[in-house]
Design a protein that fits this description.
290 residues, mainly alpha, MetI-like_sf
């Protein structure tokens, strides 16, 4: 017993030293990643002169004036921009969740001609950069008279299951649901619609939440698509409104822009925190981990 005890002590010390090194590396990496965000938050409380001269996160003179000034900098207040972003993001979440769930159920559970080919084509669309589709989409929407309408070009495509990533995620999740449940429901008299409503839909909640979270975050932060289709100031969303702080001469109101940028992060942060547990569960059970 007396000969074993020192050996155990040495191994514990080496393990603790390795843990300390890894922890130090992680902390340094975390600080490097978080510094730009912390600097923007801290700069939103600095004066304009201090923003350009002080690289420290903490302000020497604390002020809240940028928040009030930024909120009412334009003819339309940021209240309207936040409402526009919220409406577009929530409608996109609903459209993506419903359409992608139905499409995924068809690919995962139903039998129809050339199902494998259609699924491969859908997966192939993931390889296309989104910017490639902007011009063809603009021509189609212009022909339909949807340009300058705030919702149609941004929401209707989402209701047609055009987000192949979410369809693929849900297909992977549904493939993990035992088919015995489908067969049991069929024996009880359920049609394919009944199986979808009573079996697949309740069990697909983690995948739906994952789709909802990513749809909300991507739509809330989207700039280019909304810039193309929203041309009136009253229809602008938060990302486009933040661009207004930099005028055509290159002059910018950095303090006000940083203040509104910080506020624009809050809805995404709260949405992620509220559904974080189900997001991890949905990714793990859909085979997209790692």
């Amino acid at each position: 017993m007396t000969a074993v005890a020192p050996h155990v002590t040495v191994r514990k010390n080496r393990f603790s030293a390795g843990q300390a090194v890894r922890l130090a590396v992680l902390i340094v990496g975390l600080l490097l990643v978080l510094y730009p965000l912390a600097w923007v938050i801290g700069s939103s409380f600095k004066s304009d002169a201090e923003i350009a001269s002080n690289i420290s996160v903490l302000p020497t003179e604390f002020t809240l004036s940028h928040y009030a000034a930024g909120w009412n900098s334009f003819d339309v207040s940021f209240t309207r921009f936040f409402i526009n972003s919220t409406v577009i993001a929530l409608l996109t979440v609903i459209a993506n969740a419903v359409s992608c769930l139905i499409a995924a159920y068809a690919f995962a559970r139903l039998r129809f001609p050339m199902r494998g080919l259609w699924f491969a084509i859908m997966i192939g669309t993931l390889l296309l950069p989104g910017d490639v589709l902007i011009i063809p989409q603009y021509i189609v929407f212009n022909t339909l008279g949807w340009i300058d309408t705030p919702l149609l070009p941004l929401i209707v495509p989402k209701a047609l299951a055009t987000e192949a990533f979410f369809v693929f995620l849900m297909v992977q999740f549904m493939r993990g649901i035992p088919r015995d449940l489908d067969e049991a429901a069929t024996i009880d008299g359920c049609s394919p619609y009944g199986v979808f409503w009573h079996v697949i839909l309740p069990l697909s909640r983690p995948a739906l939440v994952t789709t909802a979270i990513f749809s909300f975050i991507w739509t809330w932060n989207d700039f280019f698509t909304q810039l193309v289709y929203l041309n009136e100031l009253e229809d602008y969303t938060v990302p486009i409104a933040l661009r207004l702080f930099i005028d055509s001469t290159g002059q910018s109101s950095l303090g006000a822009m940083f203040a509104m940028s910080v506020l624009s992060l809050l809805p995404v942060f709260l949405f992620f925190v509220a559904f974080q547990r189900m997001l991890v569960e949905g990714i793990n059970t859909s085979g997209l981990k790692g």
